[in-house]
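hiii so um. not sure if this is the right channel but i have a protein structure encoded as tokens and i wanna go backwards to a sequence. like what aa goes where. can anyone help
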């Protein structure tokens, strides 16, 4: 498996998905529209990072695209909290 300094890329993608999931917990505490847009921007960057990590993962890894699928679904959920994008 392709690894960067001993960290598997697929596992790193799952970790970024976990951070993306934790960002959903911030919405009840944020009242301004600008900060909500920033969180959606961070979620978008995390989704692109997960896509790159999934592309760099070897083809032999089972469920190679599952972290990206989860990140994409989480991005849509983030978009529900800011409907005026």
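sure thing!! here u go:
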């Amino acid at each position: 498996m392709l690894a960067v300094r001993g960290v598997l890329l697929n596992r790193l993608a799952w970790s970024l998905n976990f951070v993306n999931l934790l960002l959903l917990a911030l919405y009840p505490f944020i009242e301004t529209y600008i900060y909500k847009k920033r969180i959606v921007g961070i979620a978008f960057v995390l989704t692109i990072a997960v896509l790159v990590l999934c592309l760099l993962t070897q083809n032999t890894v089972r469920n190679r695209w599952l972290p990206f699928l989860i990140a994409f679904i989480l991005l849509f959920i983030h978009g529900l909290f800011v409907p005026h994008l």
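oh and Residues 5 and 66 are 23 Å apart (CA to CA).
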